[in-house]
């Protein structure tokens, strides 16, 4: 039996609750995380970020009522991102950079696409997937929809309406015809 998105009950404890939070709340959380990291470094400790990981997207569903991705709690893992992890400091640096970019977006009250975020530090991120996962983990950690981080997804190749494009080679691209 096929289940439509509208018929899925996202209110039970099976799913992680995500709610819209004000920009100021998220900015304070980011600043608090950074302060804790700096404090740990100041006393000679290795800072660790505890993140919520949901790498398996098949255990997620889209809640049409509030526009949020809902993650099944039984599939969430708490992972530690450490500067001295076996994978090296890159994962830690990526997460800190994502925090920095989201903080900047929220303080300035501007939005960016995930692709825009990727291009802010291509050398560090390496690929778009790294950014996508880090942003989703941050949203999951704060239990907010990604849009609360002022980060959106961008549509690819979507055109609607009566549009004609005259290309440089003098050909006509007519978008209204199938």
TrEMBL record:
Active site: 119 (o-(5'-phospho-dna)-tyrosine intermediate)
Chemical reaction(s) catalysed: ATP-dependent breakage, passage and rejoining of double-stranded DNA
GO cellular component: nuclear chromosome
Keyword Cytoplasm: no
Signal peptide (residue range): none
One of the protein's GO biological processes: meiotic DNA double-strand break formation
Keywords: DNA-binding, Isomerase, Topoisomerase
GO MF, one example: DNA binding
Similarity comment text for this entry: Belongs to the TOP6A family.
One Pfam family recorded for the sequence: TP6A_N
Domain annotation Spo11/DNA topoisomerase VI subunit A N-terminal: ranges: 92-151
InterPro entries on file: Spo11/TopoVI_A, Spo11/TopoVI_A_N, Spo11/TopoVI_A_sf, WH-like_DNA-bd_sf
Domain of life, source organism: Eukaryota
Protein name (Swiss-Prot/TrEMBL): 698_t:CDS:1
């Amino acid at each position: 039996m096929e289940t439509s998105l509208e018929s899925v009950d996202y209110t039970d404890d099976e799913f992680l609750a995500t709610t819209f939070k004000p920009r100021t709340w998220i900015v304070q959380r980011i600043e608090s995380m950074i302060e804790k990291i700096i404090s740990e470094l100041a006393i000679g400790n290795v800072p660790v970020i505890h993140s919520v990981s949901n790498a398996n997207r098949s255990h997620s569903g889209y809640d049409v009522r509030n526009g949020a991705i809902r993650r099944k709690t039984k599939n969430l893992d708490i992972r530690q991102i450490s500067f001295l992890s076996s994978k090296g400091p890159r994962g830690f640096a990526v997460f800190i950079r994502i925090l920095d970019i989201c903080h900047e977006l929220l303080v300035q009250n501007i939005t960016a696409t995930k692709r825009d975020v990727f291009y802010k530090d291509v050398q560090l991120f390496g690929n778009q997937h790294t950014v996508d996962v880090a942003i989703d983990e941050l949203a999951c950690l704060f239990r907010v929809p990604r849009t609360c981080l002022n980060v959106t997804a961008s549509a690819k190749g979507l055109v609607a309406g009566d549009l004609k494009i005259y290309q440089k080679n003098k050909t006509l691209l007519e978008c209204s015809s199938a």
